[in-house]
Amino acid sequence: MTLADEINQAIKNNATIFGYRESIKFLKTSKPQKIILAKNAPENLRKEIEHNTKVAGVEVQIFEGTSKELGVFCGKPFPIAVLVIK
Q1: 17 has which bridge partners?
Q2: pTM of the entire predicted model
Q3: How far from the centroid of its chain's Cα atoms is residue 86's Cα?
Q4: Class of residue 63 by CB neighbours under 10 A (exposed 0-12, middle 13-18, buried 19+)
Q5: Dihedral, CA of residue 59, residue 65, residue 71 and residue 77, to nearest 10
Q6: Mode of pairing for the β-strands spanning 59-63 and 34-38
Q7: Positive or negative: CA dihedral 42, 46, 47, 49
C-alpha cells in the first residue's frame, strides 16, 4: 500500500489528526500508527516530531510534496505540515 493510499484510507475512516500541536498531544498520550511530515516542514517542527516519535517507537514518513500539496491532497483548504494516522 502506498503512502497516498494509506492517507486516503485513514481520511475515509476518520482516523487522522491534522496539525503540529494536535499531533504532539496525541503522540504524548497515545501511540499512532504513523506520522507523516510534509517535505517542507520547518526544521524545528521536524526535529521535535522526530524526537517524540523515536521515544514512542512510531514510524515517520515524508510526504514528497509541500504542506500546501498535502493539504490539497487531504481535501483541506489549508496547508498541513504534520498528519497523524491513528
Answers
A1: 84
A2: 0.90
A3: 10
A4: buried
A5: 170
A6: parallel
A7: positive
